[in-house]
TrEMBL record, chains A, B:
Organism: Paracoccus homiensis
Protein keywords: Transferase
Domain of life: Bacteria
Pfam family of the protein (one): CoA_transf_3
Region (Disordered): 346-371
Protein name in UniProt: CoA:oxalate CoA-transferase
SUPFAM superfamilies found in the cross-reference section: CoA-transferase family III (CaiB/BaiF) (SSF89796)
Amino acid sequence: MAKPLAGLVVLDLTHVLAGPFCSTQLVDLGARVIKIERPGLGDDTRAFPPFLDGESAYFAALNHGKSSIALNLKAADDREIFERLLQRADVVLENYRPGVMERLGYGWDDLHARLPRLIYGAVSGFGHTGPEAGKPAYDMVVQARGGVMSITGETGGPPVRVGASIGDVVAGMYLTQGILAALIARGQSGLGQKVDISMLDAQLAIQEHAIAITGATGVPPGPTGARHPTITPFATYRARDGFVVIAAGNDAIFARLCAALGLDHLPDDPDYATNTARCQRPDLLKRLIETITLTRDVDHWIAVLEHAGVPTGRVQNMAQVLRDPQILSRNMVVTLQTDGDRPAFVAAGNPIKMSDLPDGTTRPPAPRLDQDRQQILDWLDTDATGR
Amino acid sequence: MAKPLAGLVVLDLTHVLAGPFCSTQLVDLGARVIKIERPGLGDDTRAFPPFLDGESAYFAALNHGKSSIALNLKAADDREIFERLLQRADVVLENYRPGVMERLGYGWDDLHARLPRLIYGAVSGFGHTGPEAGKPAYDMVVQARGGVMSITGETGGPPVRVGASIGDVVAGMYLTQGILAALIARGQSGLGQKVDISMLDAQLAIQEHAIAITGATGVPPGPTGARHPTITPFATYRARDGFVVIAAGNDAIFARLCAALGLDHLPDDPDYATNTARCQRPDLLKRLIETITLTRDVDHWIAVLEHAGVPTGRVQNMAQVLRDPQILSRNMVVTLQTDGDRPAFVAAGNPIKMSDLPDGTTRPPAPRLDQDRQQILDWLDTDATGR
């Protein structure tokens, strides 16, 4: 069966992270993504370390399966090629600052008037509307301003950035959703739409808990380290060789936890018998638990707690994650094809498992800058009938 | 113009967070979502604090715009209603542990054989395949095991949980993408698909940077607090009344930063002249910068740095976020309609801004348990022709 986006053509003018993250998802769903890069340097991330054989691992992880053509959209010859590409395109993606596409003559209003079926997706720091529409932003700026840093970190400590670039990545995911929704709408109306994603908006959208608490009480929550704010014990605890997650979501689990650790008296102690009581003294309880857990390794405690029916897990670094049998069994670590002489980069697999979507452990490589120019020009010369 | 998912019927058997997060997105895109809850208690989150007039703010933020019917899928009468709902449904969503739907007689294979157009979306801790398919998981378990906690927190400090529940939320977002992709595929093939999302897979998918580094070097990255791992200065710095982000992405910006702070000698000092040199001594540079920034308030430094062309921003808590003019101008804070006598909860707006998708600042309320039973039964009695 054909992939969901088979036959769709995406012109991808985006660079760095949020936009390319979206267009990689569209590749995984079957779209043909043509990456349009500036001549000479291409996407900034081609210069991001680390490198293997002179190629950026970061660029590779974010751009596999796309084709590349270098175009200067201010030069007449290249603009002519871009015009011909537009005639074949279903979707255009860009992450310039608002106004740049308009100055090039390719703003949404112009394009929509000429190509009413074309879908236009934009992702920017603050969106295309509002008092700060024109400003640039970085991942950390929207993580800070959007509130997630205020709830991440140790209690009483300084704000901490989320280690993953969720300022960019979540925005890229919303762009993907918007493009898919616009494709569905076009199926009914025949008309394309503009999708306008703001990285700052996207940060707000993922914080349902903090919004609900602040909206109802007026008091914004703060950071709580690795501890659940309202359930105890529900945190990471030190074992001899690392950390183990213990998630005792109710009193019955807590009783099983205490039996497994040899803390049999605790469930009868009024200071620890209920979650409300335990939430009064999480640090004391942590010390009681770690007095036991520090005596043995993580593997030991995972086995003991799983046997006792206590939700648990390891805190893994990325090297451990990339060897995790469950993750590997789901094809979530993929290798880029080496194309003869190129390095075998790894990337995340497609987390969208669909019964009719092939899901292997290899992917085509990321393109070298402008490598598909001739093939794209040849394709433009072919008959477009049937599309 | 009609919303993208207008006319689509979603039967939502999910509870707590990942599944309801997805179905709220489908509501925002125009779908009719019927929330099917267990009789008596309903969704667990109806009991999550804080409450206004006895209703959970958390439940409200995640379930606005849905209708509710309480069904016991083990009771014959209620199963008959569910069967009739299935005849009208485009999508079924569930987040039970793998196997539960099969034991109820509503597993994917059974449903697909009887209702080939039906799309089936599942989200679970570890997915429906692999050695640990049956195990439950919590947000913190997949944040820990999936690696994001290993790159979040202070350098050398204990692992820190991301304050937002990205273990659930990102999985819910991928479920949304899978459902939208399956709808597009159905438009071609006429057939529904199963979408199987694992919370653990989803964690891997958002860490392109850590995966690229680890895959290319074998060395997993660790946490770096609020500091960018490879650009300096690019972090939060203390001002008199809070923290300010300073993001000096290149030497020209660094020179402007130094001029603005009165540290004019630094760009000529070989210890600080290049990013490579600065990355050798981020703590010393932080002390030099904070000696200046601690003397004035955040507002002062935002104004000074913006004027100097240095990317900057505040670290806002959620109370500040909910008052932020740019966020408000984008309709990202919405109020739930009070329906006469109900509390006016707030929730995040829809971050997917589309040119033909209405985007207001109010939403219908979340349903009371089973409140729409009679209306749903009446609708089932109407003629289904035309769908």
